[in-house]
Amino acid sequence: MNACLINGQALSRIAISDRAIHYGDGLFETIALKYGVMPFWCDHYQRLLLGCERLKFPPLNEALLLQEIDVVKQNQHHAIIKIIITRDASERGYRIPKANTVKRIVQAYSLSEYPEKNYQEGVRVIFCKTPVSENKHLAGIKHINRLDNVLASSEWEDESIAEGLMSNAQQHIIQGTKSNIFCVREGEFYTPDLSSAGILGIMRAQIITWAELHNIKMNIKAITRDDLFAADEIFLCNSIFGIWPVTRLEEHDLPIGNYTQKLLNYFG
Amino acid sequence: MNACLINGQALSRIAISDRAIHYGDGLFETIALKYGVMPFWCDHYQRLLLGCERLKFPPLNEALLLQEIDVVKQNQHHAIIKIIITRDASERGYRIPKANTVKRIVQAYSLSEYPEKNYQEGVRVIFCKTPVSENKHLAGIKHINRLDNVLASSEWEDESIAEGLMSNAQQHIIQGTKSNIFCVREGEFYTPDLSSAGILGIMRAQIITWAELHNIKMNIKAITRDDLFAADEIFLCNSIFGIWPVTRLEEHDLPIGNYTQKLLNYFG
To answer: Counting CB atoms within 10 angstroms of each CB, which of A33, A268, B3, B159 has the fewest?
Structure first.
């Protein structure tokens, strides 16, 4: 059993009236705790605040969240902290109730172990058939309406495939099911524009900053399958696993390039 | 407190590991019980089965659902029955767990009372700013990823507005926040194509059948705001309230037309 606090109380069940159960009305963050600290806390918290604003949740209390994380992590130095923000349904129907009572669910999980060879040899990636859901008002934030990721992740069973790429209706690549994607061509970085779909990943933002610090041109734009096949390097990222080089895209092989290697050394 | 069964047990709380809470991984139906019967049971059950197929839920047992509904309705002859289908998270992550354990939540609510004048004088309707989420693999079914409806329903507070209309990114009208929409022009019916977004409503299907029985041409296609402003009649429908004539669309007034009146007499 994972440690869990609901609004500060040690509970493992939630009222059936919660709007997460009825409408997916909520937000979440999955945060790496490493060596006793959360290196990207500020980025997670910022995204959570943006989500609260978009979904009309009242502001969160950062100190309270940090105290609750401190309780659930117990004596672990390496863990995954999951925060879910939802609200109660005081009335039936979609409309946000006037009371707008926030529920904070804070949990600790053991840190996932990913195969060492994902970093050293790179990963195999396929294209998913399930499209990403498109909605400009919901794009970017980490809300709970994640059926597109659920279906896309369930498209393959072959354990040698590490990730699937999801596209929009125009067949532009948006993201992996649990990661963001970058490619490198002729010394420039490219990553999909996420203004209509996808999640603004924490590690994605770190890489955008890293590129700027290293004077590398970053292109945030629509990216096609052909763009990926023409790339010199491709890599995936998220805040839990860090960086994975893509060395096989469908039947196409790629090397682990210099830029990817540098990022692996830094974030891997 | 509403009567509630979770997999047949009288419970009011659900395990925090449920995937509805984490990803909105589930389906629902809101079913009218009138005079002790559910006149559209078959249609709701059909849509639920389609949803199960799309979201890779194992098939449901109809007899079991009906028995559970019979328990929660207690001695009520008029009520709203809500069914939620979700699954447990035996592992962390988006992928559907191999166990794929279904949870059935069956609840009874008291039937909503809508103002009599919604039927007699018609309703006032506005255009919402929140777009509908678009995803061909999720369109049509009644899944729990309903943040677009939540945000759209929360755009107005004026009690004189009965419904808001939601559009896709191309500004085609798709649906109301809690209803489907039809318009009538020169004796023909029009209703939005829902192949990329929206819910295939139970009452919508009834009206399509009714039109066919009455030899009225039905056009299921992209519908613009201009199409609505040019319509002779507009009405909204859902399986709980039946039919509401639209007599005011933004600042534009409309009459309650003959076709709408016939439908009101039949379904209203």
So the answer is: B159
